[in-house]
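The material for today's practical consists of a large collection of protein records. An example says more than a description, so a record of this kind follows:
***
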Amino acid sequence: MGISANQARLMTLTARLHDLELRAQQISAVKMQLSMQSQSAAMTYSNELNTYSEMMQEVDEDGNRVNSDETCKNYIDKKKDDYDTYTTSLSSSEKLLDMELTQINTEHEAANTEYDSIKSLISDNVDKSFNVFG
């Protein structure tokens, strides 16, 4: 290949490297959002556990408990199931993003290796071309 063909390939690889880096940044941003959603879900679940404690202590004017143990247990079981389902969904999404990020990193390394190789070819071609005149 000539210098211009190698230069065109180098520019194509540069564009590909930048595309891969952008996609990796986008994935990192989505993972950060998932992390914040997970933290929010944990806080919500914690608040619901506090509500559960309050439900257990709630009494009417006569001093009798308002909520039965069964009602309180059903409440907390439902909230735990909701939390587990949501966090499992977030975890699954994060694993998919991790796999995509691994693939992007592999592609980036391959493109970077090819970039270095072509850069070396261009340098060798320039040296050979200009050594004729020197």
About this structure: The chain has a mean pLDDT of 91. The chain has one domain: 3-131. Residues 3-131 form one domain. DSSP finds two helices and no strands in the chain.
